[in-house]
Write a structure and sequence with these properties.
The protein is mainly alpha-helical and about 70 residues long. The chain contains three helices and no strands. Helix 2 crosses helix 3.
Length: about 70
């Protein structure tokens, strides 16, 4: 069983990776320093939302595993 603090240690997305992804787009010329931080926050919020919806759906369907919907 994992401790509740374990999640907090791994909840940050790598800012350097986000900067690399943004820089890979040829249409992007310059990006302010705040942009990767905002992107990381938006990604965390998206992941949390999708995870919560998957969890609620699995509970409603009385399932123990989350599966891809068709």
């Amino acid at each position: 069983e994992s401790k509740s603090g374990d999640f907090k240690q791994h909840s940050e997305l790598p800012i350097a990776r986000i900067k690399k992804i943004v820089a890979a787009d040829d249409d992007v010329r310059m990006v302010s320093a705040e942009v990767p931080i905002i992107f990381a926050r938006a990604c965390r919020m998206f992941i949390m939302e999708v995870s919560l919806r998957a969890y609620l759906e699995s509970v409603a369907s009385n399932r123990k595993t989350v599966q891809r919907g068709l």
